[in-house]
Write a structure and sequence with these properties.
Layout: H1 14-37, E1 46-49, H2 73-76, E2 80-83, H3 103-110, H4 127-131, E3 142-146, E4 159-164, E5 167-172, E6 178-182, H5 198-215
Antiparallel strand pairs: 1-2, 3-4, 4-5, 5-6
Length: 225
């Protein structure tokens, strides 16, 4: 089917998914047991996360829209679990959005390593929020850029996205089509507000273009321009 042209997956995916989850669980358990054995648990930062959402031809990310290869929440919102018994309280949750590029500056901060001179970070340190989930992360937005030479076999197309507070804008790079969503009210991204919330759409679109320019990101791969 779409997204599985070589038929790698069986018709019933659940047994495969269950086996994969069991394997992950066992692997993480082995790491944690070894840390305990070496008496390193207290001062070891353990991070569990993913690089993208699930493939929609294999599983469902409901109630989120879309999946791997797309910039809808189903493609970019992933689990993040952090354990550091020495400094991070156990059993608490945080609803503030972060991105994987925050790990590098955060780990430098946690290890009291000074930022390399002249190095530009894509993320920021969120160590204070790890320690206290109520501590607000100070930044205006987070952004994604996903230019493709051709549509992804899972259905994704060239796009950029930006999120500021509850607002998220997606720009389809080839068509210029804009989608604006209020994730607080519409986490499933069902209602495009780009035409009814013109000021917000324009503000976020300009911020997205400015961000792309600041990091030297091209709108599309050279072969598509």
């Amino acid at each position: 089917g779409r997204g599985d042209p070589d038929h790698h997956w069986a018709g019933d995916h659940n047994p495969h998914l269950a086996a994969m989850l069991e394997s992950i669980d066992e692997g993480v358990g082995m790491l944690m047991e070894k840390l305990d054995e070496l008496d390193l648990t207290k001062n070891t930062i353990l991070i569990f996360t993913s690089d993208n959402g699930g493939e929609t031809n294999v599983t469902s990310n409901t109630p989120l829209r879309g999946g791997k290869s797309e910039l809808y929440e189903g493609g970019i919102r992933v689990p993040l679990i952090v354990r550091w018994p020495a400094l991070i309280p156990a059993g608490v949750t945080c609803n503030q959005p972060t991105q994987n590029t925050d790990f590098y500056p955060t780990l430098l901060d946690a290890a009291s390593i000074r930022k390399p001179s002249g190095e530009i970070f894509d993320g920021i340190s969120i160590l204070d929020t790890w320690k206290n989930p109520q501590q607000l992360i100070s930044r205006d937005y987070i952004a994604w850029h996903y230019p493709l030479e051709r549509p992804h076999f899972l259905g994704g197309v060239s796009a950029s996205a930006i999120r500021s507070g509850p607002w998220k804008l997606i720009e389809h790079l080839e068509s210029g089509y804009l989608q604006l969503y209020s994730l607080l009210k519409d986490p499933g991204e069902t209602t495009n507000l780009a035409e009814s919330e013109v000021a917000m759409a324009s503000k976020l679109h300009q911020a997205l273009m400015d961000w792309r320019a600041s990091v030297g990101a091209t709108s599309l791969p050279a072969s598509n321009q």
